[in-house]
Specification:
197 residues; alpha+beta; Pnp Oxidase, Chain A; eight-stranded antiparallel β-sheet; 8 strands; 27% strand
């Protein structure tokens, strides 16, 4: 049954790092606002920074709801499910922060990610999450599903863009600079990717 953990280490850390997909959930403070749930799954785009903090790469997409909600209130929940092997669900409830390209911390954070080329996916920010509550549960009802491989489409689409064309793409989208509910989203124009990578 469910257990609360004080830190992200050992078996828990291994489980999180081995999953091919995880989910993020955020919401605005307004009770009538839009709750957002997003899948994240490019291999190499998630890291455990230390026993209380994790991070993932925020890539190009058609909205920026997670970024907008984190800028407003910082609340976030991350969830991993075991689709193979022993059943398990892990949730990290905490405070998240988008670290944008022009933030002095950005290059160092980006250096923590191995095995993924951020320029192929239209990297917008690094999302850093500090855990406030870490829990796992049985996951007995989660079905078995097999992982074949990452889809290549996202990387193929955004590998064509440089900083200027990526920023222009974002500026054309309705819910990148502003969320569905009108909150500030991704700051535009998009800063250039730091050279010291």
């Amino acid at each position: 049954m469910g257990k609360t953990h004080e830190r992200i280490d050992g078996r828990l850390r291994t489980f999180m790092e081995e999953q091919h997909i995880f989910f993020t959930a955020t919401a605005p403070l307004d009770g009538d606002g839009t709750v957002n749930l997003s899948p994240k799954g490019v291999s190499g785009s998630f890291v455990v920074l230390d026993e209380q903090r994790v991070a993932y790469l925020d890539f190009a997409g058609s909205t920026a709801e997670t970024v907008a909600h984190l800028r407003e209130n910082g609340r976030i929940t991350l969830m991993w499910c075991a689709f193979q092997g022993p059943p398990n669900i892990v949730r990290v409830h905490g405070r998240g922060e988008p670290v944008f390209r022009d933030d002095p911390r950005f290059p160092e954070l980006l250096g923590r990610f191995d095995g993924v080329d951020p320029s192929r996916h239209g990297l917008r920010a690094v999302i850093v999450v500090t855990a406030e509550l870490i829990r796992d549960s049985c996951g007995f009802a989660v079905p078995y599903m097999t992982y074949d491989e990452d889809r290549a489409l996202h990387g193929q689409r955004f590998a064509r863009d440089d900083d200027a064309s990526l920023s222009a793409y974002f500026e054309k989208k309705d819910h990148i600079a502003t969320s569905i509910d009108g909150l500030p989203g991704l700051p535009l124009p998009l800063p250039a990717m730091p050279q010291a990578m």
